[in-house]
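Q: I'm writing up a methods section and want to include an example of the input and output format. Could you take the sequence below and give the corresponding predicted structure tokens, formatted cleanly so I can copy it straight into the document?
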Amino acid sequence: MLLALFLAQRTARVAGVNPGQVWNLCIAALFAALLAQRLMLVAINWSSLRTHPSWMLGLAMIHHPLLSAAGALAGLGCAVLYARWRRLALWNTADALAPPLVLGLAFEQLGALLAGSDYGTEAAARWGVIYTNPLAARWSGTPLWTPLYPVQAYAALAFLTLSIFLLVGLPARRQPGDVAGMGMLGIGVAIFITELWRDPEGRGALLGGMLDGPQAAAVLLVLAGGLMLLERKSTRMKNEAGHG
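A: Here is the clean output for your methods example:
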């Protein structure tokens, strides 16, 4: 998170947005996301937490697609509200946040790899990862002493590559919103592909098991990113025609 925050200071200057306001936006969105995740965990586990209140200290270790979605929606809503309140240029702000956000996702997946969260399916490959700590099984249901695909590392590498691509492309963007649109496309593609190696337990099933919950969200991200790029391209062509 710290690396993403510091990177956002650089990308904000490149995108023409006030770095101080972007910093405040990121902090507000981060706390909104963490608060939404914690409140959902408390609500879901309320009966158990009434008996064992000290367990609240360990809830932050739980990693689940539903919690990620709740945190993402809360953070996005807070970021949009703050941007409108401070009258930040919405598309420029989105471009400035895209590379740091993807970088944060890369390190988040490294954390999941170390904790045993979002684990992969059973692996026949020699580079499979084996978890032995009972806490991984307790909090994430991770199979112990079983070789699993290190899908979290796959996702981290994909997100890191995408972050570098967006960072390099930010100064060369043709119009505001292009980097954010490419970021949504790339995130969606990375999630959809890496889900093929993740264990489906607790991730939901759609269309008779053809898709899981994160893959459905990934499809929506790809569609949203594509529509954003098409809309921005149409706007640019109209502006160029008007200038002509």
